[in-house]
Amino acid sequence: MDIQKFISREKARGDCFRLLSACFYQPHKEAFIQEEFFKNLEALLTQAVPDAAAHVSAMGKAFMKYSEEDLLVDYARLFVGPAELLAPPYGSIYLDGEKKVMGDSTMEVIKIYEAQGLAMDSEFNNLPDHITAELEFMYYLIFKEIEALERSETGKAIELINTQELFLNNFLKRWVKPFCGKIKQGASGEYYRALADCVSAFIESPQHSDNIPVELRATITQN
Hints:
- It contains twelve helices and no strands.
- The protein is mainly α.
- It is about 70% helix and about 0% strand.
- The chain has helices at about 5-20, 30-35, 35-50, 50-55, 55-65, 70-80, 90-95, 105-115, 130-150, 155-185, 190-205, 215-220.
């Protein structure tokens, strides 16, 4: 794969992280319908991770099947409360072994954000290791990687790819699968079960595999 094809795929992969993050915010049917959300997500996943794209059709059909009120009720039961959450969307619940938020792993995530020059937005009402924050962080890293590649800043691009791999392997890949398992167990409707299948397939897939151009891959291996 040459650099330009790689950049095109990376743009699609980054947008997949961004759109999948949006799925974990409070559902708004009108916005998703107007934006042709699921059509766009399926097209991007088909380019980036085809195995995950196979679940988008089920997501879209289920999303249209239920009323917004039904979706909101399921969303609250799974991720918000006020009762005990059926699928807590925080990494530390799964990584720290104590089923509590703001654990040691959360502090590690904050350090990685800060190393990239980021701080939590004051208007962001969730914790730093919330699923939306971690997916959006991956989008940010890929966005910056693409910027570097387009400027021929190969060293910077490699550094960002390595950070992506570290973050995926040390955080997201370690907790997203059990998180998605809890979604499938607790969801009352088909939409969030299909979303869990999609996200799990996406995160578990080899994010770069053999798609990295030879001139980049050799340098990444050295690191």
